[in-house]
Structure prediction request, 98 residues.
Amino acid sequence: MSITAALVVFAVTWFMVFFLVLQWRPASQADSGSVVPGTPPGAPAAETVKRKALVTTGIATVIWAVIVSIILWGGISVRDLDWADRMAPLPAADGTGE
Prediction:
């Protein structure tokens, strides 16, 4: 796995986790009871993006480490995920072609 591939896997993992973490305990201005004039009642009551980004980084790092270790280990391949048997069988290791 190249460094670029590892960074791409981390970025994808980070954003997937971030979109999940954004949904944890959202507090709107209507829920808190103080709507700032000129803003919609559904607007966030407090700035929590920095804290949620830090939580996301921690969770994404753990998930990324598991994914990268599985990729580098090589014990699970695409053929292991082919449950419909659509991939051609591997050639024999002894060179007979069967």
